[in-house]
Amino acid sequence: MSEKPEEKSTPAAAPKRKIGGLGRGLNALIEGSYEKKSERLVSHPVNSVGLIAVGQIQANPYQPRTHFDQEALQELAESIKVQGIIQPVTVRQTGTNTYQLISGERRLQASKLAGLEAIPAYIRKADDQQMLEMALIENIQRENLNAIEIALSYQRLVSECNLKQEELGDRVGKNRSTVTNYLRLLKLPPDIQIGLRDAVISMGHARALINIEDTEQQLALFRRIVAEELSVRRVEQLVRNGGSSASRPDAPEAQPVHDESLHVPVAELRRTERHLSERFGSRVLVKPGPQGRGEIKIAFDSVEDMQRILHILQPA
């Protein structure tokens, strides 16, 4: 009588692990380090990344940037809702469950707008001077920072962090001449600095104006640049000629920035120009024409500057 072969039991298949959808950012990688119910911080060592409650992160007192475009912040908040935080903010621990932001102010503000309770943060050790230096350098590396903001940040690094211009160039990845050119902008009259900050003139215009010693001539040529929309090359020619024609009496008055028949408010056009100038980091002019037509002009100072703008224009 033949024996019935012993049946081998097949092990039950392990249940498939459900993979969460994409778009959760770093939260998905460090999930569990933040306990939502108790709203308390789970201790994280220095030089690690962990989830930290937004209410436990204090603002950086050394933050050099005080103005943030609210429309851009809202756009970032919408992106965070979908994609999560792609790059963690950087903080230092100041006490039990309290942290101070080193860099990532926009990400923190946008996260609050997006309703996040906790965000990923890199915890590192830093004293007050390192806080200032890191905040300034991170701010300088932003693409849409205007030239005056960069110059002021350079000046603070030199004066408050006791850096020489050569050391400063090494820290921010620029040569000494570039650093010097930015610092020289702070010698311009306040009206011209404001014009550069608000993208009324470009960096090239400002660098040409620096070479005029007389303040009144600088201001006169600045007004002419704005009124006649002079190119950088034309301004350089005027400066080489001694700037004698900068304040000529027959200089035309500034033309209206829009066609009245289009009923486009000047203030709205200026807001649009400022928004675009911040977006591209260059002077932008919006010039409406008849029948709803018009043009948008984006200024650039070099081939590298043009390539930077083209990169921004490329679809994501």
From TrEMBL:
Residues 241-263 are annotated as: Disordered. GO terms for biological process: chromosome segregation. One of its GO terms (cellular component) is chromosome. The keyword Ribonucleoprotein does not apply. Residues 50-140 form the ParB-like N-terminal domain. The keyword Protein biosynthesis does not apply. InterPro entries: Chromosome_partition/occlusion (IPR050336), HTH_ParB/Spo0J (IPR041468), ParB/RepB/Spo0J (IPR004437), ParB/Sulfiredoxin_sf (IPR036086), ParB_dimer_C (IPR057240), ParB_N (IPR003115). GO terms for molecular function: DNA binding. Pfam families: HTH_ParB, ParB_C, ParB_N. Keywords: Chromosome partition, DNA-binding. PANTHER family: CHROMOSOME-PARTITIONING PROTEIN PARB-RELATED. Belongs to the ParB family. This is ParB/RepB/Spo0J family partition protein. It comes from Hymenobacter lutimineralis.
